[in-house]
Amino acid sequence: MKDKNNPQKNRRIMTKIMMLLTGLTFLVFVYRFSTIMLTKKVDGVNLSEQIDNLYSRSSILPAKRGTIYDIGGNPIAMDATSYSLVAVLTDKWSQDKENPQHIIEKEETAEALSKHISMSKSEILSLLNQEGVDQVEFGLAGTNLTYGTKADIEAEKLPGIFFEETPSRLYPNGIFASHLVGYAAVDTETEDAEKNRLVGMMGIEEAYDDILNGQDGKVSDQKDSEGYGIPGTEVVLEEPIDGKEIYLTLDMRLQTYLETLMTKVYEEAEPEEMVAMLVNPKTGAVMAATQRPTFNATTMEGIDSKWQNLLIEEPFEPGSTFKILTIAAAINEGIFRPYDTYSSGEIEVEGGTIHDYNLTGWGQISYLEGFGRSSNVMVVKLVQEMGYDVWEEYMHAFGVSTSTESGLANEATGAYNYSYPLEKANTTFGQGVTITPFQLVQAFTSIANDGKTMKLNYIHKIVDPVTNEEEVIQPQETSSPITKETAQTVLEYLTTVVYEDYGTATAYSIDNAKVGVKTGTAELVDPESGKYYTGTNEYLYSAVGFAPIEDPSYILYVTLKMPKNNEQKNFVDYLTDVFNPMMTRAVAYDELGTESEGTKKQAAIPKVTNLSKEEAVANLEEIGFSSVSVIGSGSRIVQQFPYNETQALFNQKVILMTEGAMTMPDVRGWSKDDVLKISELTGVSFEFEGDGYVVYQEKSEGSLLNVEESIKINLE
């Protein structure tokens, strides 16, 4: 009992226990520490990697998205870094009084900024004078700024003015085949915010996104305990692979001119929609194509007016232009006897009566005259003789209700009703059958190409910028629905529509070539009632032409849907306002030859796009071109006129355009033709008064240009 209560003995026991536990704990720590030293891991986590992660960082090296060019190498879409202007109004972030991070002098700041962005001093001041706001932005005027504009503003040394940098896509031509080319933008929904990748959202940009995008690289460097990069530690882990470049079949000269014509008519006629496309029938190359409504792919102005690409997404009833295919089938079957006669006006078909458009017809006329007058009765008679089954086979052979495999998103195939005799008869004149402009013009290539249908194509070649390897897209024949002799006969008969007094297309003749044209007036279905409209101008008007008719180099197709303004002009005037000058210009380009051998003081214009302004001007002057003017607020040339490889006299005016905002040059002393070069490059229209040379310009040198405005020019 005495031993149990001995305090001294108890303390000795506890001491031994504590020493034992301490020794065991020490052994555990020694083992653990030794394990960590040897393996450099804790619970399977590599400590070396953790330290590297703590003191190193990696970031994406973005690949350059491939540039899209026209067939002549002029840029249509290119990568750019854009900047957005931000003004800090609060002093909460200004810790260094000598280097304030907020605006000090608002008047001075507004005055300086008004010189570089399209806002007045008073408008800027109203933004800067807001109460209870830490920072402000400047709307559209302060976004999509070029590096040149950013540098100019930074040179003003304005406290409190900052820039946010974002990757962007530049479309230097403004409205330029916008729905076909499409656009690319930063994908805001991506989970990897570090990538900040541009993604094709529409048109060619979307269809060829994988080819254009390339592959991002990766770079790493070390940082100190404060998180700052340590100089000299940067290591490139993966080099970026830039996207491939795409050269389109579009011709800058023709496309820009078509846009100008379409804008003018769209503003005058006020239609719901318009479409125009110019195609080379020998190759299927789309040389120019546009629609209205349209949009500016850089500013996105107008994008909400119409998202659909009318070339391929919205099939419609074509009306009488479809009769070209009906006549071709009849000639090919040997049943079209041009000088036989028939009674025009109306024809009974099981299920109803079909009338000519004037209801009463023109009495007893020849089949050839019936074609010139666009007689519905005539084509119904032909197909009845041919047989509806045979006619349907021809429609299939021409590609009706078959995809053109354009590669563009949401391509429609169209359809037709063919259950009853009346439905079958209606298809002969383009009613009850729907088709897209792409399908229709592709079918028409067989008429202008010796009976062979060529697949429509908008890509000329794809180029790897690293290896310079080229993949040239070859023309592709899709079918041969008619013979060469048939095709040539159809072309001959199409001239009667233009050059005979009774023809429906007499207004479509041009001065520099003989053309064949077919017009169309298609009924439209009211989407609410499901029935055809009955109003005076509630139609889709169209015209398709072939030139030069002896051996067509071009097919031009133009549509005008439900024009509202019919007081000053009718639909024919509006269509010819696009068709006639466009076809004239296209044929003229075909006829351009080299200068005569005796001409001196001339040379080929070199390619100066993608050079700086200074380099471009120096290159031109070195060759001998002394009259060079620059349009635009940027530092890099994105367009030129005349185009590269064009033969030009040394005293000819050369116009260069930079990226960024378009600006007005000093054109005093210029000829009218020289001023029109600006219009061809920019799409801006001019109103001329007088003759001779420019003595007055409404917009002063350096003023911003707007394609929605027309600029007055006085000549003497």
How are the secondary structure elements laid out?
Elements: H1 7-39, E1 41-42, E2 45-46, H2 47-55, E3 56-61, E4 68-69, E5 75-88, H3 106-113, H4 121-128, E6 135-137, H5 147-154, E7 161-170, H6 178-181, E8 184-186, E9 198-200, H7 203-207, H8 209-213, E10 217-222, E11 235-238, E12 245-248, H9 252-269, E13 273-280, E14 285-292, H10 323-332, E15 341-343, E16 346-349, E17 352-355, E18 364-366, H11 367-372, H12 376-386, H13 388-398, H14 421-426, H15 437-448, E19 453-454, E20 459-463, E21 470-472, E22 477-479, H16 484-499, E23 516-523, E24 539-547, E25 554-561, H17 571-591, E26 602-604, H18 613-623, E27 628-631, E28 637-641, E29 647-649, E30 654-658, H19 672-682, E31 685-689, E32 694-697, E33 710-715
Parallel strand pairs: 4-12, 27-30, 31-33
Antiparallel strand pairs: 1-2, 3-10, 4-5, 5-6, 5-7, 8-9, 10-11, 12-20, 13-14, 13-25, 15-18, 16-17, 19-22, 20-21, 23-24, 24-25, 26-29, 28-30, 32-33
Helix pairs in contact: 3-4, 9-17, 9-19, 10-12, 10-16
GO molecular function, one term: penicillin binding
Pfam families: PASTA, PBP_dimer, Transpeptidase
Subcellular location: Cell membrane
Overall description:
The protein is an alpha+beta fold and 716 residues long. The protein folds into four domains: 7-58; 59-246, Penicillin-binding protein 2a (Domain 2), CATH 3.90.1310.10; 252-591, 3-Layer(aba) Sandwich (Beta-lactamase); 602-715, Trypsin Inhibitor V, Chain A (2-Layer Sandwich), CATH 3.30.10.20. The chain contains 19 helices and 33 strands. Strands 4, 5, 6, 7, 12, 20 and 21 form a seven-stranded mixed beta sheet that branches. It has a five-stranded antiparallel beta sheet with strand order 14-13-25-24-23, with helices on both faces. Helix 9 runs antiparallel to helix 17, helix 10 (323-332) packs parallel to helix 12 (376-386) and helix 10 crosses helix 16 (484-499). The longest helix has 33 residues, at 7-39. 40% of the residues are buried.
